[in-house]
Amino acid sequence: MADYVPPNTNGVNPLTRTASAAVTGGRLVETTTTGAVGPAAAGAKVVGVAAHDAATGARVTVWPLANVEHEIEVLAAATVTVGDGVVSAAAGTINTAVIATAAAAGTLIGIATTTAIAPAKARFVGRG
């Protein structure tokens, strides 16, 4: 995938981490070990979005979630609607969730600001 830059960064700067597994730019990542990230699984506690592809062991730039508007691919066969709670889905994509339930589980990553049907991308404002 091409390099990823969020549609609206609100002045937030990206971080740099080590890829514990191959990551794809524009996909969600989660912390795997101290200082390392890997592709986010469904329901993961996501730390951000990879800014570019990176092989295992390589350095990867990560855009954090908090206060940044991201645009991520919707999980296959899913629909995201404006105002939905957003959580991680398979392979670093996004899906919807009940806001209160996902927040209580610590898996809520943001609130959708656009509507999209897979395989399109939906935007969401990230929660920290």
What do these coordinates show?
The chain has one helix spanning 99-105; strands at 15-19, 28-33, 36-39, 46-50, 59-64, 69-73, 79-80, 85-88, 94-97, 110-112, 116-117, 121-126. It is mostly beta strands and 128 residues long. It has two domains: 15-64, no CATH class; 69-126, no CATH class. A five-stranded mixed β-barrel has the order 1-3-2-4-5. The chain has a five-stranded antiparallel β-sheet with strand order 6-12-10-8-9. β8 (85-88) and β9 form a beta hairpin. The longest helix is centred in the last third of the chain and has 7 residues, at 99-105.
Topology at a glance:
Elements: E1 15-19, E2 28-33, E3 36-39, E4 46-50, E5 59-64, E6 69-73, E7 79-80, E8 85-88, E9 94-97, H1 99-105, E10 110-112, E11 116-117, E12 121-126
Parallel strand pairs: 1-3
Antiparallel strand pairs: 1-5, 2-3, 2-4, 4-5, 6-12, 7-11, 8-9, 8-10, 10-12
Cα radius of gyration in angstroms = 13 Å
Number of domains: 2
The span between the termini is 26 Å
What best-fitting shape do the alpha-carbon axes yield?
Answer: globular
* Largest pleated sheet: 5 strands, mixed, barrel
Secondary structure category = mainly beta
What kind of oligomer do you see? single chain
Mean pLDDT comes to 95
Uncertain runs are none
- H-E order: EEEEEEEEEHEEE
Short description:
The chain is mostly beta strands and 128 residues long. Helix content is 5%, strand content 41%.
